[in-house]
Amino acid sequence: MKRSREEIADSIREFMIAMLHAAPQEGLSLSAAAVLGVLYEVGPQRITTLAASNAVTQPAMTALVNRLESTGLVLRVVDPVDSRARLVTITEKGIRTLLERRGRQNAAIAVTIDALDAAQAALLLQLVPTLREMSGRMKS
């Protein structure tokens, strides 16, 4: 079982890398996309929280948020719980940019799925709930 677990993990990792290389990034780094994804899925966050969730320093996250803010993808708003603090929130432009990026990634993956035979495609479809569960576990 250990060998097959390692083989599965290695295959998933290789697929993820191939997918990232296959889909055009168009100026949005992986870190920037990750931050936009958190803001889109979770909601406004403090820079310290974003830094911790992305395993970077607070100064590095501040610099990234500054770049995202300068391009209109995020903005800082007053924290309704603590008016001294600021929250980073995604803008409509940020949402469009993120969803367009995800769409390009999905399209790149779809091309490879379309090349599969019916049995292979059906097998992948059966794995969707398991893949979603694995994703959820990795996020928490």
TrEMBL record:
A Pfam family recorded for this sequence: MarR_2
Domain HTH marR-type, residue spans: 1-133
SUPFAM superfamilies: Winged helix' DNA-binding domain (SSF46785)
Cross-referenced InterPro entries: HTH-type_Bedaq_tolerance, HTH_MarR-typ, WH-like_DNA-bd_sf, WH_DNA-bd_sf
Coiled coil: none
Protein name per the record: HTH marR-type domain-containing protein
Source organism: Nocardioides bigeumensis
